[in-house]
What does this fold into?
Amino acid sequence: MAVLVAGGCGYIGSHTCLEFLEQGYDVVAADNLCNSSAESLRRVEELTGKKIPFYEVNVCDRAAVRPIFENHKIDCVIQFAGLKAVGESVQKPLEYYQNNLNATLTLCDVMREFGVKRMIFSSSATVYGLDNPIPYVETMPTGECTNPYGWTKVMSEKILQGVAAADPEWSVVLLRYFNPIGAHESGRIGENPNGVPNNLMPYITQVAVGRREKLSIFGQDYPTPDGTCIRDYIHVVDLAKGHVAAMEYAMHHTGTEIFNLGTGKGVSVTELVETFEQVNGVAVPHVYVGRRAGDLAEYYANADKARRVLGWQAERSIADMCRDSWNWQKNNPNGYSNEKPL
Ligand code: WQD
It folds into this structure.
């Protein structure tokens, strides 16, 4: 039983590789390293004592993907390979549509050739768009995204639903992530963004470790109890475990299923910063500035379906997320960059 993890060197991909290995599955990884480091996989091997065959390929390249399926008996593909910076996607729409859509199309095409018909897809709460009421439920309409990144997720979901509809032997699971943060409790793998972080938690940890002077909190005038935005933060290890549950579901079911992976609880920016400071005993200097374009005031998951159907639920608290993010950052102030490549 081998899973191919496309985008396996990234933040969520590396934690997912680790979780599959710990549950006794074989893992093969593919990644073009355009926004990740193979050092993450080396550390997963170190943590688990197991080997991960690694292919440094762009999964948009059919000829480069085929040998993976020739060399390994792949039962399921977990598709993380894609570009993910919301702001950058507005500047580079063609790169986002080309990369993110072709990655999934090419993988599906090669899967079809080799008779592999199970895919778990890395989607996002961003597909709920601007108009849905909270909490978000899987049955709500998608679309009305404000950026090309979000549209690539909406479109990829549609493509995969079409593939499963056309061939009754296919099994597709669409996982809509809320806001993944945290790191493996070992502190050996974690989030390692290039350049200035776009997302909140890596910004907080880089301020705490002294790489950046202060955090700017975007907006203090939202219609929320403390005026800052509310999100559903989920520990990346819980998220990784959700992929194992989804794969086990896909082994026994066909068709398409969609699951929110969140905690179902909303936390404000100020609450997250204060929890981080308290749990870790470190200061995170911050200032309140104007709103960031495109931010919604508040959203969180209805996470009932994953619990009911997959038997999965998030178990780690906001304090756990803050502790583990800090443990990773303080032990790796420059991420993976000081380490020798694989
Ligand atoms: C969280 C909150 C910010 C940075 C985005 C994408 C989503 C998904 C995850 C993944 C917001 C505030 C942030 C900072 C701040 N994409 N903030 N200062 O925007 O909920 O979701 O990333 O691949 O599709 O939309 O996450 O972490 O950027 O922001 O005040 O320096 O933190 O305004 O309220 P977001 P985020």
Observations:
- The CA atoms of residues 218 and 293 lie 9 Å apart.
- The chain has a mean pLDDT of 97.
